[in-house]
Amino acid sequence: MMQSMRQWWNNHSEGEQRFMTALGVVIALVIFWLGLWRPINGAVDSGWERQRAALDRYSSVRAKVEAIRKLPAKGSSGANVPIDQLVGQSAAEAGFTLDRAAAQGDGRMAITISSARMPALMGWLASLEAAGVPVETVSIAPGASEGTVAVQAVLREAGR
Questions:
Q1: In a 10 Å sphere around its CB, with 0-12 CB exposed, 13-18 middle and 19+ buried, how is residue 128 labelled?
Q2: Of 26, 23, 20, which is closest to residue 10 (Cα–Cα)?
Q3: Which residues have C-beta within 8 Å of that of residue 87, sequence separation ≥ 6?
Q4: Residue 68 and residue 62: Cα distance in Å, rounded?
Q5: Residue 77 CB burial class (10 angstroms; 0-12, 13-18, ≥19)
Q6: pLDDT recorded at residue 145
Q7: Residue 102 forms beta bridges with which residues?
Q8: Mean pLDDT over all residues of the chain?
Q9: Share of the chain residues as helix, strand and coil, in percent rounded to the nearest 5
Q10: Considering only CA atoms, which of 137, 136, 133, 91 is closest in space to residue 116?
Q11: Claim: this prediction has a pTM higher than 0.70
Q12: Does residue 21 register a pLDDT over 90?
């Protein structure tokens, strides 16, 4: 086999041999570029992007944990601040607009939010529970716009 390839090579002129050598180098470079360099470079770029996203999620979780740690102990704010004031203030701080907030007797409050993102809503409800305002009932339905939910909930002061 090598003998026949060598004979085939020698049957071509020196100019043809140089041309085939250059063509072989170009083909090898294209195969290297498309077969190795681009896939490896794409995988590395994808890995860096995934790491950036993971670091963003990590810093977000750390900030939420730090915010929860700074909340007053359970039940301590309920004795000092009325439930309607606490819920209204914390909703505004969390970026929610209470469409309806009505007192339902001593220490209970019904709220309605027509548009909220689910992760933010759950974080806000958790912070309320940590502040001594547990959720008695909650109804969550898909919201008007994509990715949002509508919420109806009854909140009560701890110990009531």
A1: buried
A2: 20
A3: 98, 101, 109, 111, 128, 133, 155
A4: 10
A5: buried
A6: 85
A7: 110
A8: 88
A9: 60, 20, 20
A10: 91
A11: no
A12: yes
